[in-house]
Amino acid sequence: MTYRLFICIAWIWTTVSLYASSSKFEYIVVGGVNYSNVTVFGANATDLFFTSDSGIRNVKLKYLTPELQKQFNYDPDVAEKAEQQQIEDDKHYQENLVASITADFNAARDAREAEAQAPYSDAGLGDSIPGGSALGKPAPALDMVKWVGGKPNLTDKFAIISVWSPKSASSRKWIPAMNELYKNLSGKIEVLGVTTATESEVLKTEPKIEFPCALDPKSTFLKSAGISMLPCVILMDTNRAVRYQGHPAALNADVLQNILKNSAK
């Protein structure tokens, strides 16, 4: 707002400095409009300012009669340059205003997100994704056509999405831990898998998975989530926002119980 105030002060100062005395007219005609009982209280390079029976007005000097233009020192070249400067000043003001509003919005959004992330940060969870954070952003849609073990209902629920592959020894290593979370946190946090493998490959995997698993043969989910390493888990809150994305070692039972406790406050 300081920039806008500066423009207004500069405008007023220019008006007063160029026309310090007042003039009265029975009427003036501007662009076909008749203003009666006119008292001029200011003028600058482009505009005439006055009161009339219809209130306070300002009009462009270029629309006045030649006689009035001469009386108020109208210069077309000077007026054109002044109008262009006014346009530039207003443009800069609008740009600064948008930047200020955007900065305020982003600061408020970041503050809200920091508050929402607090229970997860307190539990020791960060975002281990290289090259940019997914925290607070919506998790990719789980709209796969085919599921092994049935599609779970995630409405108003926390969810752990385990992205894995039967061909990955590291992925298979974490299946028992995911199975335990699935059994022990049932009704509190849903556990489900996503894999690019076929149904046959999933069913043949040892150890066997006990949680539902979505088949993602075209890697649609993996690409949307920016997953480049396996195994990887995504913790999603009740609003489908990502609260953790990284190695499954971070999501042990104690951490998850702590999150549930803090999120319930």
Record the SSE blueprint:
Layout lengths: L1 H17 L4 E8 L2 E11 L3 E6 L2 E6 L5 H6 L4 H47 L24 E2 L9 E6 L5 H5 L1 H10 L4 E7 L3 H6 L8 E3 L4 H6 L6 E5 L5 E5 L6 H11 L2
Parallel strand pairs: 6-7, 7-8
Antiparallel strand pairs: 1-2, 2-3, 3-4, 5-8, 6-9, 9-10
Question: Care to give the gist of this entry?
Answer:
With 265 residues, this protein is of the alpha+beta class. The chain contains eight helices and ten strands. Helices cover 41% and strands 22% of the residues.
Task: Note down, in words, how this protein is organized.
The protein has two domains: 87 residues, no CATH class; 141 residues, Glutaredoxin. The chain is built from eight helices and ten strands. Strands 5-8-7-6-9-10 form a six-stranded mixed β-sheet. Strands 1-2-3-4 form a four-stranded antiparallel β-sheet.
Mean pLDDT: 83
Q: Which CATH C-level class of the largest domain is it?
A: Alpha Beta
Order of secondary-structure elements: HEEEEHHEEHHEHEHEEH
Major pleated sheet: 6 strands, mixed
CATH superfamily of the largest domain: Glutaredoxin
CATH architectural label of the largest domain: 3-Layer(aba) Sandwich
Strand order of the largest sheet: 5-8-7-6-9-10
**Percentage of β-strand residues:** 15-25%
Low-pLDDT residue intervals, each spanning 5 or more residues: 1-18
CATH topology of the largest domain: Glutaredoxin
- Structural class label: alpha+beta
Determine the number of helices (DSSP H or I, runs of at least 4 residues): 8
Number of domains: 2
**How does the overall form come out from the CA principal axes?**
rod-shaped
| Distance linking N and C termini | 40 Å
